[in-house]
Q: What sequence folds into this?
């Protein structure tokens, strides 16, 4: 009996030791790297513009060519969109505008003996005040005939005074333009960027390359590492990040190329800024996510391997 009980305790002890060992292994297993692209769910036929959206960020999110998207929705440069606006992502034309409910019309009330003051063009139940009764005309007063009076020496008529001229109207103040985001300025970018006109955004090796579900390059940087612009261009989006990053900057490098920098620290750039190759985009921060950096390049709306432009 004692021998059997001892075996049971030994088995329980071995199981407990295995459980502790397994838990320790799981605790040190690195977390899987998630895809950090902008796509959030399947692409709808019609998209409703949200706060901070630009046409470029919408096109980026669904891997669409921004020029084709603008043409489909008849949006002209500089591609200004408004919150709540409906944008057709598929099809050949803009989405139909939602129909407004028709306003109910009230039938005009007919005058009756009980309500004689209701006019035909007034809603029923609305009383019109009675018309004012004209007062009787006053009896004309006949003036007495003038009597003869001594001659009066005529006096010279007063000299005519020059007519007063109306004060000149103050010149109209020039209309003040409604302030709009700097990204609405006309973009001056080339039609394309040559392969030799690119540079790597950081002097570090990526922790994850392009392909296999990744649409760009992922980096884990030391605090203070400078992230630089890989190509010149104009910032067309700088706002909340999508796909796991707090901040996102999209630069239009050419009519074909869009470049994105996803960071978890506040970037140095804002919409409308002109960017030169090598300019500072941000510096890596501290903490578990402060050094995470994601880099993407799109050609005609489609993600491409940045190494094909940056070189090996």
A:
């Amino acid at each position: 009996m004692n021998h059997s009980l001892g075996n049971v305790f030994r088995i329980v002890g071995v199981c407990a030791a295995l459980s502790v060992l397994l838990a320790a292994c799981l605790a040190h297993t690195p977390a899987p790297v998630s895809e950090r692209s902008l796509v959030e769910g399947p692409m709808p036929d019609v998209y409703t513009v949200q706060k901070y959206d630009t046409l470029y960020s919408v096109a980026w999110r669904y891997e669409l060519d921004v020029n084709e998207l603008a043409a489909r929705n008849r949006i002209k440069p500089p591609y200004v969109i408004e919150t709540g606006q409906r944008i057709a992502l598929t099809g050949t034309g803009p989405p139909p505008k939602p129909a407004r409910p028709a306003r109910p019309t009230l039938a005009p009330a007919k005058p009756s003996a009980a309500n004689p003051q209701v006019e035909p063009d007034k809603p029923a139940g609305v009383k019109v005040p009675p018309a004012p009764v004209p007062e009787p005309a006053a009896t004309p007063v006949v003036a007495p005939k003038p009597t003869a009076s001594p001659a009066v020496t005529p006096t010279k008529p007063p000299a005519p005074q020059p007519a007063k001229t109306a004060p000149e109207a103050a010149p109209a103040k020039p209309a003040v333009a409604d302030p709009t985001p700097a990204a609405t300025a006309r973009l001056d970018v080339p039609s394309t960027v040559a392969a030799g006109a690119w540079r790597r955004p950081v002097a570090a090796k990526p922790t994850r390359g392009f392909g296999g579900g990744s649409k760009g390059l992922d980096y884990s940087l030391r605090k203070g590492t400078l992230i630089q612009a890989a190509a010149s261009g104009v910032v067309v989006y700088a706002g909340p990040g999508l796909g796991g990053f707090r901040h996102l900057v999209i630069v239009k490098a050419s009519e074909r190329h869009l470049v994105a920098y996803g960071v978890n620290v506040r970037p140095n750039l804002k919409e409308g800024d002109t960017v030169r190759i090598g300019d500072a985009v941000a510096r890596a921060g501290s903490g578990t996510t402060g050094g995470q950096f994601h880099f993407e390049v799109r050609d005609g709306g489609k993600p491409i391997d940045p190494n094909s432009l940056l070189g090996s």
